[in-house]
Known about the structure:
The complex is a heterodimer of chains A (208) and B (758).
Chain A: H1 13-19, H2 27-33, E1 41-42, E2 53-60, E3 63-70, H3 75-82, E4 101-104, E5 107-110, E6 123-125, H4 138-145, H5 155-168, H6 174-180, H7 191-207
Parallel strand pairs in A: 2-6
Antiparallel strand pairs in A: 2-3, 4-5, 4-6
Chain B: H1 10-18, H2 57-61, E1 77-83, E2 89-95, H3 97-101, E3 105-110, E4 114-116, E5 122-128, H4 131-139, E6 142-147, H5 154-157, E7 171-179, H6 182-188, E8 191-198, E9 211-217, E10 220-225, H7 230-241, E11 248-251, H8 267-279, E12 283-286, H9 289-295, E13 301-310, E14 316-326, H10 336-341, E15 348-355, H11 370-388, H12 392-398, H13 404-407, H14 417-428, E16 444-455, E17 464-469, E18 475-478, H15 488-500, E19 507-510, H16 527-554, E20 561-564, E21 567-570, E22 577-579, H17 580-584, E23 591-596, E24 608-619, E25 625-635, H18 642-661, E26 692-697, H19 721-733, H20 744-752
Amino acid sequence: MDTPRKKKKAVSRRAFLQTMGGGAVGAGVVSRVLGKEMPALQAGPGPMDVVSSKTISLTVNGRKVKVAAEAGETLLQVLREKLQLTGAKRVCNRGECGGCTVLVGGKPVYACHTLALQIDGAEILTVEGLAEGDKLHPVQQAFIDKDGYQCGFCTPGFIMASVGLLKKNPQPTFDEIRAGVSGNLCRCGNYQKIYAAVGAAAETMRRG
Amino acid sequence: MKTPPPIDDAFAEYAELARTQGTQTATPGSTAPAAPAPQPKPDEFKYIGKATPRVDGRMVVTGAARYTHDLAFGDMLIGKILRSPHACADLVSIDLSGALALPGVKAALKLKEGRIRWAGEPVAAVAAVSESRAEEALALIKVEYKPLPHVTAPDKAMEAGAPLVQDQGNVIKSNDYARGDVEKGFKEADVVLERTYKTSWEVHQPTETHGSVARWDGDDLTVWDSTQAVQSIRDGLARALSIPAGRVKVLKHYMGGGFGSKLNLGDYTVTAAKLAKETGRPVKITLTRRENSICVGYRPTAWMTVKAGARKDGTLTALSVKSYNCGGVGRGDRVSEPYSDMYACPNVKIEEFSVFVNACASRATRAPGHTQATLGLEGMMEELAAALGMDPLALRMKNFAAKDKGDTGIPYSTKGLEQCYKLGSEKIGWDRRNKKPGGGSGKVRTGLGMASQIWPGAGAPGTLADVKLYPDGSVEVECGTQDIGTGTRTHIAVVAAETLGLEPKDIIVHIGNSDLPWAPISGGSMTTPSVAPAVRDAALKAAEHLKNLASKKLGLPPAEIVLENRKAASKADPTKAIELKELARGLPRPLPFHGERSNYPSTFAFQTFGVQFAEVEVDTETGKIKVKKVVAAHDIGRVINRQTAESQVLGGVVQGMSAALFEEKIMDPRTGTMVNPNYHDYKVATAMDIPEIVPLFADVIDERLNNLGAKGLGEPGRIPASACIANAVYNALGVHVREIPMTPARVLAALKRKEARP
């Protein structure tokens, strides 16, 4: 791989905005703010001419790792591209669907909307770190038993959101389950079975 | 004069693949029988028809399942596509030199010349060492456009003097169907209604965006593609690259949803292969959510004017439909079949038109054509019932068609719709409906509505599968199908395990590889009724072989032997048995048994049927609709796995509800671009929107269709969902909204409408 260009500068507002261009501030808006002509309708946020990089330490699934993270780099990019942990998915890449949900310090977060540099030192749990050896976490087992998915692409996110929910609220009501996974999107529409899976997992965990 | 370029016709392409399956024949020289033998009754099966958890569950819930998005190779490059910002323009020039000069950029390609017809059309592509470098490179490509006037709204496109989208004109006749004499039929009617129903552009929005990885090994190309069709993507790639099909292998192990949008060969896939060829390195192209929203199709709209006539007793005398279907620069869907087939009616006339606008071509979307048609047809049935003062269910029963083409064609082999009506109406409590639509009072009105469903789902004769017995006792099934989330791997394991006396988890299933025995696209509710019978056929042959081996060991005739509990045992005396593993040791080498999905008789028609009932609450002040409950009863022949079958129906209902209430691709008429290309602005139903859904199956086994009597289920659950909700809203309000999505504004507008009652 070629070495990324490094210009040791602070992150400029422009670079930040362009990095976040796929987000609430659209790329088109950015260019109009900057008084430029509308760029071609393209895939990503466009050129990023300011890059800074820093080594951060993370504990991922119980393993300590050090990674070089760039200014605009998200936790999701670090997990998928640098640590080869592809369980968390890039679905919307702008905090709308929960497909990238992981636990940071025990709480569910959208990894696509978490800048890596902001979580230096954090403890992260991904779907890959949930099972203990061959023994699946009760939430994982319940998603199989209750057919809590179809294509399975949103499943790691739903599972981590559910694990986060049950940590905070071990005996959720039906409505609390719905609210607990309301930040996650299943396009196959298997919600009813997802609720059943979370309920069954809560029951298993309660019984120990 | 230059011949105009061909117009994209995703529906025809899809119809060719998915809906003319009955005309397919089995492989030449095949032993597959023309009509399958009688089958075991449901209670004779241990796994088939019962609920089996997915065999690949552990892969999915641990994050070990590798989707196309997740693939990476050491020297892999990332490809990105530059897309036109203009909805209509002539491409003057493309200068790639700036991109090619950027360090880390390994190749750049021009993808387009001439007329650009939609915003988002691919113009050029690059391959670079990282995603961000590829994005930088795109910005350095200089493209000169000569922008031209565009039109993105179908009604504007139909006006005189509108910018011409296709050289043939913006409106062309796309379908004509007629039987009997509708004018005569309308004269015979006591009640005649004419209503216009409209659907929106509904985007598939699968969670895994479209994408491919291409790698060359000499002259051989391997492509990992997020696709519903490994076999036809192989064929399409070979054609696009002018190389032999035998040199292309397409792999798809796991895929994050498709819903029809991943049946076609993607330009991004061809581009990845070209960039990989040029650079000598693997190239991955993954569309962004924005590209996914704009560039890979949607369900085309249908604006359907439906006129129906009936006698006082409810007998339909005539039905005429004029539909304007808009699929961007493509032809859109054909909506005629539910109108022509669903109800007994001697006089039918259907005219369809394609309307062209400057937007990407539509693609097949879960039950193309049928879904739009069902909103119109079933909306009309509900309004007609009210005009006749009849129970909407009784009106449908009155016009029940036992034969194809609205009771004028060949008989249906099986039709479990009456059972579905009974199951569903009892479960929802149909008597609770407002006997007169809008009969309730108060701010929040409740209503019940129903809609029936028809869809082919017969499966493809000629589908192949191999069952391999290994001397170590392991059993492998190979089939060139794919699991798109419906549970195909599990269905294969269930059928093989059932037939061989094993457990589903004992079966090693290999699919998602175009080199494996042929299977059709996973679209059109085709996979299970194609693949499961082929696996059953192969497994029956393997079972026969095992029984012959056991016969010698046990000293019993093969007919006296059963395979169960991982043993070959005497029927009369189960203690006389031999482990199948032990028996396999006698195999000289791995033995493959070839299975094939049989033909079915052409003297019968094969369709799936179903009905859904919805209960809604509508706030008459805010216009907000809350779907409380949906009961879905379907006849899909024999159910292979109840657990995954239920999930299919849940998904169909949720997507139908989502389309009924929320979904719409919105175009900015000024810029000609989609303004809501993301999950935030393109609203899809999520956790808090979901009603209680009750899936039910009629379990009518069609012994003429295939050796399992199974039909398909991908589309049926989706087809009546939007329509039954629209009809429930009608029952609540006494006025039909007639256009989806039924936004609060449309609901309030409908409430204000003073209708001229016939």
